[in-house]
Design goal:
Radius of gyration: 30 Å
Strand content: 25-35%
Structural class: alpha+beta
Order of helices and strands: HEEEEEEEE
Number of strands: 8
Shape: rod-shaped
Number of helices: 1
Largest sheet: 5 strands, antiparallel
Helix content: 25-40%
Length: about 170
Protein backbone atom coordinates (compact mmCIF):
# COMPACT_ATOMS: atom_id res chain seq x y z
CA UNK A 1 0.00 0.00 0.00
CA UNK A 2 1.27 3.47 -0.87
CA UNK A 3 2.00 5.86 1.92
CA UNK A 4 0.57 9.44 1.69
CA UNK A 5 2.83 12.25 2.71
CA UNK A 6 1.84 14.38 5.71
CA UNK A 7 1.99 17.47 3.51
CA UNK A 8 -0.66 16.16 1.08
CA UNK A 9 -3.81 16.44 3.23
CA UNK A 10 -5.93 19.04 1.33
CA UNK A 11 -6.36 20.64 -2.05
CA UNK A 12 -3.79 22.87 -3.65
CA UNK A 13 -4.53 26.45 -4.64
CA UNK A 14 -4.36 25.44 -8.31
CA UNK A 15 -6.94 22.70 -7.83
CA UNK A 16 -9.32 25.05 -6.02
CA UNK A 17 -8.84 27.71 -8.72
CA UNK A 18 -9.66 25.23 -11.47
CA UNK A 19 -12.85 24.11 -9.68
CA UNK A 20 -13.96 27.74 -9.17
CA UNK A 21 -13.27 28.54 -12.84
CA UNK A 22 -15.33 25.54 -13.98
CA UNK A 23 -18.23 26.55 -11.69
CA UNK A 24 -18.14 30.13 -13.01
CA UNK A 25 -18.10 28.91 -16.60
CA UNK A 26 -21.29 26.95 -15.87
CA UNK A 27 -23.10 29.52 -13.66
CA UNK A 28 -22.66 32.68 -15.74
CA UNK A 29 -24.57 31.47 -18.85
CA UNK A 30 -27.26 29.90 -16.68
CA UNK A 31 -27.77 33.13 -14.69
CA UNK A 32 -27.90 35.20 -17.90
CA UNK A 33 -30.52 32.82 -19.31
CA UNK A 34 -32.63 33.05 -16.14
CA UNK A 35 -32.38 36.87 -16.07
CA UNK A 36 -33.44 37.17 -19.73
CA UNK A 37 -36.32 34.74 -19.23
CA UNK A 38 -37.54 36.68 -16.17
CA UNK A 39 -37.35 40.01 -17.98
CA UNK A 40 -39.25 38.61 -20.97
CA UNK A 41 -41.90 37.20 -18.66
CA UNK A 42 -42.38 40.58 -16.96
CA UNK A 43 -42.68 42.40 -20.31
CA UNK A 44 -45.15 39.81 -21.57
CA UNK A 45 -47.28 40.24 -18.44
CA UNK A 46 -47.35 44.01 -18.95
CA UNK A 47 -48.46 43.58 -22.57
CA UNK A 48 -51.19 41.11 -21.58
CA UNK A 49 -52.49 43.60 -19.00
CA UNK A 50 -52.45 46.40 -21.59
CA UNK A 51 -54.28 44.28 -24.15
CA UNK A 52 -56.88 43.33 -21.54
CA UNK A 53 -57.66 46.96 -20.71
CA UNK A 54 -57.62 48.05 -24.37
CA UNK A 55 -60.14 45.30 -25.20
CA UNK A 56 -62.47 46.25 -22.35
CA UNK A 57 -62.46 49.92 -23.33
CA UNK A 58 -62.97 49.19 -27.02
CA UNK A 59 -65.84 46.75 -26.36
CA UNK A 60 -67.61 49.27 -24.14
CA UNK A 61 -67.12 52.06 -26.66
CA UNK A 62 -68.33 49.87 -29.51
CA UNK A 63 -71.46 48.80 -27.66
CA UNK A 64 -72.45 52.37 -26.84
CA UNK A 65 -71.30 54.37 -29.87
CA UNK A 66 -72.98 51.93 -32.26
CA UNK A 67 -76.35 53.31 -31.05
CA UNK A 68 -75.28 56.98 -31.02
CA UNK A 69 -77.91 59.51 -32.01
CA UNK A 70 -77.57 61.12 -35.42
CA UNK A 71 -74.92 63.87 -35.46
CA UNK A 72 -74.23 63.56 -31.73
CA UNK A 73 -70.65 62.26 -31.93
CA UNK A 74 -67.97 64.87 -31.24
CA UNK A 75 -64.28 64.32 -30.61
CA UNK A 76 -61.98 67.00 -29.22
CA UNK A 77 -58.53 65.86 -30.42
CA UNK A 78 -56.66 68.37 -28.27
CA UNK A 79 -58.25 67.11 -25.04
CA UNK A 80 -58.81 63.51 -26.22
CA UNK A 81 -62.49 63.75 -25.33
CA UNK A 82 -65.28 61.82 -27.07
CA UNK A 83 -68.91 62.80 -26.42
CA UNK A 84 -72.17 61.43 -27.81
CA UNK A 85 -75.73 60.63 -26.82
CA UNK A 86 -78.03 57.70 -27.42
CA UNK A 87 -81.49 56.66 -26.34
CA UNK A 88 -81.51 53.37 -24.51
CA UNK A 89 -84.38 50.91 -24.79
CA UNK A 90 -85.71 48.31 -22.40
CA UNK A 91 -86.23 44.64 -23.29
CA UNK A 92 -89.70 45.37 -24.73
CA UNK A 93 -88.22 47.87 -27.20
CA UNK A 94 -89.71 50.90 -25.45
CA UNK A 95 -87.44 53.95 -25.49
CA UNK A 96 -86.04 55.21 -22.24
CA UNK A 97 -84.31 58.50 -21.46
CA UNK A 98 -81.30 59.86 -23.31
CA UNK A 99 -77.91 58.73 -22.07
CA UNK A 100 -74.94 61.09 -22.26
CA UNK A 101 -71.59 59.39 -22.85
CA UNK A 102 -68.19 60.93 -22.34
CA UNK A 103 -64.84 59.18 -22.76
CA UNK A 104 -61.67 61.09 -22.01
CA UNK A 105 -57.94 60.33 -21.82
CA UNK A 106 -56.40 62.75 -19.34
CA UNK A 107 -52.69 63.59 -19.79
CA UNK A 108 -52.31 61.70 -23.09
CA UNK A 109 -48.89 60.40 -24.12
CA UNK A 110 -47.58 60.66 -20.54
CA UNK A 111 -46.72 58.22 -17.78
CA UNK A 112 -49.66 59.47 -15.73
CA UNK A 113 -52.27 59.24 -18.52
CA UNK A 114 -55.58 57.87 -17.27
CA UNK A 115 -58.71 56.85 -19.17
CA UNK A 116 -62.11 57.90 -17.79
CA UNK A 117 -65.76 57.40 -18.71
CA UNK A 118 -69.11 58.90 -17.77
CA UNK A 119 -72.46 57.41 -18.81
CA UNK A 120 -75.48 59.06 -17.27
CA UNK A 121 -78.85 60.68 -17.88
CA UNK A 122 -77.19 63.89 -16.63
CA UNK A 123 -74.99 65.63 -19.19
CA UNK A 124 -72.79 67.14 -16.45
CA UNK A 125 -71.70 63.90 -14.78
CA UNK A 126 -67.97 63.80 -14.12
CA UNK A 127 -66.12 60.88 -15.66
CA UNK A 128 -64.48 58.26 -13.43
CA UNK A 129 -61.61 55.88 -14.09
CA UNK A 130 -62.63 53.19 -16.55
CA UNK A 131 -62.32 50.27 -16.38
CA UNK A 132 -62.16 50.05 -12.60
CA UNK A 133 -58.64 49.16 -11.47
CA UNK A 134 -56.93 50.77 -14.47
CA UNK A 135 -53.50 52.06 -13.52
CA UNK A 136 -52.09 55.34 -14.73
CA UNK A 137 -49.98 55.20 -17.87
CA UNK A 138 -51.35 51.96 -19.35
CA UNK A 139 -53.47 53.75 -21.98
CA UNK A 140 -51.12 56.11 -23.79
CA UNK A 141 -53.25 57.59 -26.59
CA UNK A 142 -56.87 57.73 -27.72
CA UNK A 143 -58.14 58.90 -31.09
CA UNK A 144 -61.49 58.89 -32.89
CA UNK A 145 -62.07 59.66 -36.55
CA UNK A 146 -65.44 61.38 -36.55
CA UNK A 147 -68.10 59.74 -38.66
CA UNK A 148 -68.26 60.83 -42.28
CA UNK A 149 -70.87 58.34 -43.45
CA UNK A 150 -72.13 55.61 -41.16
CA UNK A 151 -68.84 54.42 -39.62
CA UNK A 152 -66.51 55.67 -36.91
CA UNK A 153 -62.92 54.52 -36.33
CA UNK A 154 -61.53 54.33 -32.80
CA UNK A 155 -57.83 53.88 -32.03
CA UNK A 156 -56.35 53.08 -28.62
CA UNK A 157 -52.61 52.89 -27.97
CA UNK A 158 -50.87 51.43 -24.92
CA UNK A 159 -47.63 52.56 -23.32
CA UNK A 160 -45.61 49.74 -24.94
CA UNK A 161 -46.98 50.66 -28.39
CA UNK A 162 -49.75 48.08 -28.67
CA UNK A 163 -52.45 49.55 -30.96
CA UNK A 164 -56.07 48.46 -31.08
CA UNK A 165 -58.17 49.99 -33.84
CA UNK A 166 -61.74 49.28 -34.81
CA UNK A 167 -64.12 50.71 -37.35
CA UNK A 168 -67.65 50.63 -35.97
CA UNK A 169 -70.82 50.67 -38.01
CA UNK A 170 -73.23 53.29 -36.63
CA UNK A 171 -76.89 52.25 -36.62
CA UNK A 172 -78.46 55.71 -36.50
CA UNK A 173 -76.27 57.67 -38.92
Amino acid sequence: MAKISAYRRGFTVIEISIVIAIILILIIPISVFIANYSQGFIIENIQVKEQYYLNIILQDLEQRIRRADTNSITFDAANRTLKFTYIDADTDGNKKTTLYCKYVLENPQADNAIFKRAVSTDSNTSPTIFPPGLEKGIIYDFNVQPPTTNTCTITLTSKTGLVLQKTIYLLNY
